[in-house]
Amino acid sequence: MIRFDETHAFLKEDFDAYQEAVNRCHAMLMNKSGKGNDYVGWVEWPNTYDKEEFARIKKRAAWIRENCDVFLVCGIGGSYLGARAAIEMINGLYPSQKPEIIFIGNTFSSTYIAQVLRYIEGKRAVVNVISKSGTTTETALAFRLLKQYMEKTYGKEEAAKRIVATTDHAKGTLKQIADREGYDTYTIPDDIGGRFSVMTAVGLLPIAVAGIDIDELMTGVQAAYADLSDPDLHHNPAYRYAVARRMLQNAGKDVEMLVTYELQMTSFGEWWKQLFGESEGKEGKGILPHSATFSTDLHSLGQFVQEGKKVLFETVINVSKPSEDLIFPSDEENMDQMNYLSGKNLHWVNQMAAKGTLEAHVETGKVPNLLIEIPDMSAHSFGYLIYFFFRAIGMTSYLIDVNPFNQPGVEVYKKNMFRLLGKQ
Ligand code: PA5
């Protein structure tokens, strides 16, 4: 399903030398015996997910699709990045279907929040507030404004029907509010952290509201589970990728740039950055995750990749079959001198750009490239790909003895901000 190719990465170490460590880390993930073992519920989630809640999500999504024009996803970090990545990758950036999905609760920008509140005026709105802790300030701030807007616009009773909460099953401020107001609620499992939660109600409800087949998405997740449960580095591309990253860092590459050639996968890069950065970047260790969309960013970052400091490697996701294609037309006058492409598929042009870039970056620029090939941008492929990266980050972090499932460093800015804001 996923083809992983490390032959353009100048790797000097031998994969077999890592097999023993990989077996050990694999056992830690599977037996829940490694660091952060309270948060490895995602490993078995493809088999254990709550089927009753899943059915409820589908039903609720169908109701929302009928009864709203704008669906506001109010969350930050793992509470929105996965849904956004899926919706954009699968539906594209300008989908024709309703409702329109708007992301909020991920910023303190007064301009952005005010503009969203103005934009939704006069449109039928439904809000999905998502927070595992239930106390995240960006989300809580936006939600208070949205709650007041909804109650003013629809009255308290109708507003309560139009607000859905996804949070902890028992604790937290958001859970208390949801219970008191009688909101429909969905659960973030205790043992799945935010950035691993896109395959739970956190991601599934918004994704289903966008009209995407979440059964198909879960089939992709399950296929990845089946394919990636053998620790053998000759059979497991996720673990092979995890090891290749370690080899590249040993060779002095401290930055990884995730590259796609599809604009609608730009948010996928944002999701991946959170997953990898927050999981691995601690104790002075880790690879800095960066992302880019080519060929767009070849006209900005391309220069650095080609000739700048040799700190990075690229991990390139290639999509075999585009969601749509066009044939380039011919033009009698050919004033733009583009007739050499007449009759060619645009996807073929994109692929040739990728091929030429690979050659330029690897052969001329000596930038190591890891290649990941996915068949298409379907819900199935999305499900497969996220689980591939979950397994990879679990493995690659355990290989450097890091707990991938906490984020203690995030607290430092919060502490300072709360002091400045005068929070008791
Ligand atoms: O991965 C994580 O756990 C975090 O990045 C969270 O997703 C993020 O901080 C949002 O937290 P919460 O869902 O508790 O509001």
Automatic annotation (TrEMBL):
<dbReference type="InterPro" id="IPR035476">
    <property type="entry name" value="SIS_PGI_1"/>
</dbReference>
<dbReference type="InterPro" id="IPR018189">
    <property type="entry name" value="Phosphoglucose_isomerase_CS"/>
</dbReference>
<keyword id="KW-0963">Cytoplasm</keyword>
<comment type="function">
    <text>Catalyzes the reversible isomerization of glucose-6-phosphate to fructose-6-phosphate.</text>
</comment>
<feature type="active site" description="Proton donor">
    <location>
        <position position="278"/>
    </location>
</feature>
<protein>
    <recommendedName>
        <fullName>Glucose-6-phosphate isomerase</fullName>
        <ecNumber>5.3.1.9</ecNumber>
    </recommendedName>
</protein>
<dbReference type="InterPro" id="IPR035482">
    <property type="entry name" value="SIS_PGI_2"/>
</dbReference>
<dbReference type="GO" id="GO:0004347">
    <property type="term" value="F:glucose-6-phosphate isomerase activity"/>
</dbReference>
<keyword id="KW-0324">Glycolysis</keyword>
<dbReference type="Pfam" id="PF00342">
    <property type="entry name" value="PGI"/>
</dbReference>
<comment type="similarity">
    <text>Belongs to the GPI family.</text>
</comment>
<dbReference type="InterPro" id="IPR046348">
    <property type="entry name" value="SIS_dom_sf"/>
</dbReference>
<keyword id="KW-0312">Gluconeogenesis</keyword>
<dbReference type="InterPro" id="IPR001672">
    <property type="entry name" value="G6P_Isomerase"/>
</dbReference>
<feature type="active site">
    <location>
        <position position="414"/>
    </location>
</feature>
<comment type="pathway">
    <text>Carbohydrate degradation; glycolysis; D-glyceraldehyde 3-phosphate and glycerone phosphate from D-glucose: step 2/4.</text>
</comment>
<keyword id="KW-0413">Isomerase</keyword>
<comment type="pathway">
    <text>Carbohydrate biosynthesis; gluconeogenesis.</text>
</comment>
